[in-house]
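Example (one chain per record):
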Amino acid sequence: MWDFSTEPEFQSKLDWMKTFVREEIEPLDLVFDRPAHYYDVTDKRANAAIKPLQDEVRRQKLWACHLGADLGRPGYGQLKLALMDEILGRSLWAPRVFGTQAPDTGNAEILAMFGTAAQKKRYLQPLLDGDIISCFSMTEPQGGADPKVFECGAKHDGKGWVLNGYKWFSSNARWASFFIVMAVTDPDAPPATRFSMFLVPAETPGVNIVRNVGLIGEPADEGAHGYMHYDNVRLDDDSVLGGVGQAFAVAQARLGGGRIHHAMRTIGACSKAFDMMCERALSRSTQGSRLADKQGVLANIANSDIELRQFRLLVLEAAWIMDQGDHAAAVTAIARVKVATPKIFYDVVQRAIHMHGSLGVSNELPLQHMWIGAALIGLVDGPTEVHQITLGKRVLRDYKPAPGIFPTEHIPTRKIDAEKKLAKYLKD
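Predicted structure:
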C-alpha cells in the first residue's frame, strides 16, 4: 500500500534517477534538439551518446519498467511507474534512455498481450532491446480519432490481405521499423468488430509517407508525424494482431495505458515549468522590487503549487486503481486524468511564460516545447471532450432521479419529513 511515502529501496532508485536525468540526460536535450530527434534511431552521433546511458539504466534494472515480470522486467506496476515517469517527464530524451518512449510503450504492451510467439520474436524483442522504434497508425485525416468514420481498409483476396487508405499523424513514421495499422476489414459490422490490427514492416511495398507533419513552429517536412498512404500493401495472414475484427479491443487496451503514461510525464514537465517560475520570481526585479514581492506573482505561484499537487494525487490515485485490477474503476479514473492533464499543463506553463516576459515566448527556453505540448496532450489518445462525456456518464451511474417534483434536498419537503420523524420529541 502507498501511503504518501515510498519504501526506502525504491526511493533510492528514484533518487538515483533524479540525479541521472538532471546530470546525464538533460544535456542531450540541448545538443540533439531537432524536432522529435529523440526518436531518430538512425542518428549515429546520438546513438553513441545514449548507448552508455541506456547500459547504465539496464545495470540499475530500470529499463522498460512499463512491462511486467513475465517479460523479464521488475513488474513495478502503474503506481511506481508513475513516480518514475514524474522524473522522466523533465527531459525529452529521458523516456528513450529508459526504454519507455511513446508510442513504443503502448505498442510493446499490446504485442505482449495479443501477439503470437512469432510476432513477439520479430517485433517485440527488438523493441525491448531498444534497437528499433515503432509507429501506431490509427487516426485518419477526414475523421481524426473517431473510428466510426475510418476509411482505410484491408480486404482478403484468398492469398492474404491487401491494405489501402490514408492515415494521419502516425507519430515517428519516418524512423519506424514497423507500423501497427488499424483498418476496416468488415464495413458492415458494428464498430466493435469492424476493424483489425495489422503489423506492417516499414519496408513493405506500398507503405508511403506523403509528408512528415511537424508541430507548430517546426520547419516544413521536418516533423515526426507521418501523413501515410498505404497503397495496395500486401500482407500475409500472420500479420493480424489479436485476431480479425478485434482491433477495437486491442486499441482500448493500448490507449488506456498511454493516457496514464502521458499524464505521469506531464507531472514532470509541469514541475520543471514550476521550478523555472519560482527561480524567475526570486531572480528578477521590476518597479523597485522583486517579482517574488508582487501579490499577483505570489498568487500565481500559490495556485500553481496547489493545482500541481492536486493533479499529482489524481494521477497517483488512477495508477493505484489500475494496479488493483478493477477495469471499470480504472476507466473512470483514467478519464478523470485525461480531462485534467491539458488544463494543468497549460495553466502552469502559461504562468511560467508570462513571468519570463519576452524571454518566455522566445526559443531560448524549453517553455516553447511545453506550450505546444499542452495543446497536444489534449488531443493525443483521444480528445479531451470524449473523456469528459465518458466521465460524466460514469459519474451519473451512481445517482438516480429525484422521486418527486422537487429535489431531495428541498428544504420545505425535508422539514415536513423531519418534523414527522421528531414528533415524539416535539410534544409539549
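Caption: The chain has twelve helices and ten strands.
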